[in-house]
Amino acid sequence: xxxxxxxxxxxxxxxxxxxxxxxxxxxxxxxxxxxxxxxxxxxxxxxxxxxxxxxxxxxxxxxxxxxxxxxxxxxxxxxxxxxxxxxxxxxxxxxxxxxxxxxxxxxxxxxxxxxxxxxxxxxxxxxxxxxxxxxxxxxxxxxxxxxxxxxxxxxxxxxxxxxxxxxxxxxxxxxxxxxxxxxxxxxxxxxxxxxxxxxxxxxxxxxxxxxxxxxxxxxxxxxxxxxxxxxxxxxxxxxxxxxxxxxxxxxxxxxxxxxxxxxxxxxxxxxxxxxxxxxxxxxxxxxxxxxxxxxxxxxxxxxxxxxxxxxxxxxxxxxxxxxxxxxxxxxxxxxxxxxxxxxxxxxxxxxxxxxx
Length: 356
What we know:
It is found in: Mitochondrion inner membrane. The chain is mainly alpha-helical and about 350 residues long. It has a domain at about 70-100 and about 140-345: Rhomboid-like (Rhomboid-like fold), CATH 1.20.1540. The chain contains 13 helices and four strands. The strands form two sheets. It has a two-stranded antiparallel sheet with strand order 1-2. It has a two-stranded antiparallel sheet with strand order 3-4. It is globular and about 60 Å long. The termini are far apart.
């Protein structure tokens, strides 16, 4: 998943947009030995040069020969459906518990001594400075901090030589690989290049305030994780259909969902390329251009980017903010009600035991 961009919109929260292309690494053809005639040199069976690889992805280990069966897509499909349902169900319960905790905290602070609130803070305390920095962040920035930390941790694992085979198996997605389901999620947090990771995380940080203000913290996490799995499954389908099997990694699919969701809800927002701020365009036109580019790349077989994953993420983002929010998130009441009843029964039993 190689498409990387960042955008700055002139409005309440400006964004910047730029496109970063991966580099290809070429190979020189070996010279023919002078002592051999051309006919003998042509008749000699020599292996060809290795295919060029993308610089943002490490060289893959040897894979098994033969094209995998399309039946291998059944298990990833079931995993994508099950994981998406679990993500939104967990987010609904998380929101319930978060609201309950906020209410309890409010009443506890109301009963606290007012002197503790006006007591001056110590100067030079590192912990106080960190708390001050954290409190000055927006809710969206605080939400994506954990995602960025997870990406940095996985990036550090790529630097360990002993972890390289494990990282290829579980942190790169490929339908011909031994592992199919877990890489659909783990590859979303996987970056081999520092520039690759920095660009992706900058995009996520830039759009975090807008997307969290639209969806809320809990719903955003569910959408982001589901987008990573769904975009990877779309990549699986495209690779299986075209027969071009190569590992993919990165957060582009999930970030495309964030971009598409923001551009769909705010199509008139003004965007500009970071190095060319004098040229402006609307978010709606930018989204159309991105979809057209990835569609052409998928149809023409361009191999610079994982265009199928980009399209899968963008289409999922557009669909969710248009229809998915009404169909999924607003119908979470039965689950939350069942969870509330279960929690009430559990609390009642515990309270009765303590009163005796």
